[in-house]
Write a structure and sequence with these properties.
By secondary structure, the chain is an alpha/beta fold. It is about 60% helix and about 15% strand.
C-alpha cells in the first residue's frame, strides 16, 4: 500500500480504489463544463492584453519608448537635438504610459464581462483621455500650434491601437507553438515503459487479487482518459492533485514500500488555475529519478503554498550523484518550463537545485482563481 504522511492543511493521498476514480471523474466532469481557458500572458482571454502582467508591461514600455525615440531621431538634426527631442517627448509620454498601464490593469478586471468592442474602445481611449488631462494641466507651458493637445491625443489613441494590434498578431503567431507544446506534453507525459510495467503488475494480481487488479485497470483507464482527452491549457489545482494521486496509486503497485509520499497543499491554493499537466510530470520525474533508480526506499515531497498573488510548488526527491542527475532529469523539466513561459510569460518560473541530498524543483506562478 502507498505510504503517505499528511501534514496539516493538506490533501491526503487516496488509495487506488473507487474513491480515487470517483474524485477524478467528478474533477473531469467539472473541467468539461468549463469554457476553454487560454494563456493570460498572450492576451487571448479577451481582445486586450493583461496589463497587470509583468511581461506585457515591459514590452509596452520598451516598445512605446523605442517608437518615440525613433520619431525624435527622424526629426533631429544631430545627437544633441535627438536627445533633447526625446527627453521633451518622454516628459509627456512616460506619465501617460505608466498611468495607462495602471488604469488599464484595473479596467480590464472591471470590463472583462463586457463586449469585446467595448474593451478595445476603452483600451484606446484611456491613453487619449489621460493625455488630454495631463496637457490641459500643462496648458500654460505649451507653446506653438493651438491644436497641439488634440494632435497628441490622436497620437496616443493611434499608438494604443497599434499596441493592441501587435499583441493580437503576436497571439496569432504563438497559437501554433501553443498547440505543438500542448501536444508534445500530452504525448510525453506517460512513457511507454510505465504503461508496460503497470500492465505487468496487473497481470501478477489477476489470479491472486482479481478485485484489486480490476480497480488498478480502472484507475489506469481514467488516468489515460484525462491525459488524452482534456486539452485545456489550465485546470484547477485540485484536479492536478487528483491526477497525481491517481498516478502515484499505480506507481505504488509497481514500487511497493519503496515509494513514500508526503503531500501538503494549502487550502487557499486549491482553487488556483494551473497549466494542464503541471504537477504530474514533475512527480513522474521525481519517481523515475529519485525512487526507481534506487533500491532503497525514498520519500517524495509535494508542498503547495500560496503567498499573496503567487502559488509556490515544491517537488523534491532523493538525489544520487550519477543516477538522479542524468540528462533525462532535465528534459521533462524544460518541457514544463517552456509551457510556463508560454502561459504566464515572465510571471512564472521553474528553478532546480540539489540541497541536503535531495533534488528540488520549485515552481512559482501567479494565482488565478478558477471559476
Amino acid at each position: 500500500m502507498e505510504t503517505v504522511h499528511a501534514k496539516e492543511e493538506s490533501i491526503k493521498q487516496q488509495p487506488p480504489k473507487v474513491a480515487a476514480s470517483s474524485a477524478l471523474g467528478q474533477a473531469r466532469a467539472a473541467s468539461e463544463r468549463r469554457q476553454l481557458v487560454l494563456p493570460a500572458a498572450l492576451a487571448v482571454e479577451g481582445p486586450v492584453p493583461d496589463w497587470c502582467n509583468l511581461g506585457v508591461m515591459l514590452r509596452v514600455m520598451l516598445g512605446v519608448n523605442a517608437l518615440f525615440c525613433g520619431i525624435a531621431g527622424g526629426e533631429a538634426v544631430g545627437w544633441r537635438s535627438w536627445i533633447d527631442l526625446y527627453v521633451n517627448a518622454a516628459a509627456t509620454v512616460e506619465p501617460v504610459l505608466v498611468a495607462s498601464l495602471m488604469l488599464g490593469c484595473l479596467l480590464r478586471r472591471l470590463t472583462r464581462s463586457q463586449d469585446d468592442r467595448f474593451q478595445v474602445l476603452a483600451a484606446i481611449l484611456v491613453p487619449a483621455i489621460l493625455t488630454f488631462a495631463l496637457q490641459s494641466l500643462l496648458g500654460p507651458l505649451l507653446v506653438g500650434d493651438p491644436g497641439l493637445i488634440l494632435r497628441n491625443c490622436l497620437v496616443a489613441a493611434v499608438v494604443s491601437a497599434a499596441v493592441l494590434y501587435w499583441f493580437h498578431m503576436r497571439n496569432q503567431s504563438n497559437l501554433p507553438a501553443l498547440a505543438e507544446a500542448r501536444l508534445q506534453a500530452l504525448q510525453a507525459r506517460i512513457r511507454p515503459h510505465f504503461l508496460f510495467n503497470s500492465l505487468n503488475a496487473v497481470l501478477g494480481l489477476i489470479r491472486t487479487e482479481p478485485r484489486r487488479a480490476e480497480s488498478v485497470l480502472e484507475d489506469l483507464a481514467d488516468l489515460f482518459r484525462v491525459l488524452m482527452r482534456d486539452r485545456r491549457d489550465r485546470v484547477a489545482l485540485s484536479e492536478e492533485i487528483s491526477l497525481c494521486q491517481q498516478y502515484l496509486s499505480i506507481e505504488t503497485l509497481r514500487l511497493g514500500e519503496r515509494l513514500k509520499v508526503e503531500m501538503s497543499v494549502a487550502p487557499s491554493a486549491e482553487g488556483a488555475l494551473v497549466p494542464l499537466l503541471l504537477l504530474q510530470p514533475l512527480v513522474e520525474n521525481a519517481v523515475h529519478h529519485g525512487i526507481e533508480q534506487s533500491s532503497e526506499p525514498g520519500t517524495i515531497d509535494l508542498i503547495v503554498t500560496r503567498h499573496g498573488a503567487f502559488v509556490d510548488i515544491l517537488v523534491s526527491n532523493p538525489w544520487q550523484p550519477g543516477k538522479s542527475s542524468r540528462p533525462g532529469n532535465q528534459m521533462g523539466l524544460e518541457n514544463v518550463r517552456q509551457r510556463l513561459s508560454l502561459l504566464h510569460d515572465l510571471e512564472a518560473r521553474l528553478d532546480t537545485e540539489v540541497r541536503g541530498g535531495r533534488f528540488e524543483v520549485r515552481v512559482r506562478l501567479p494565482y488565478i482563481e478558477s471559476a
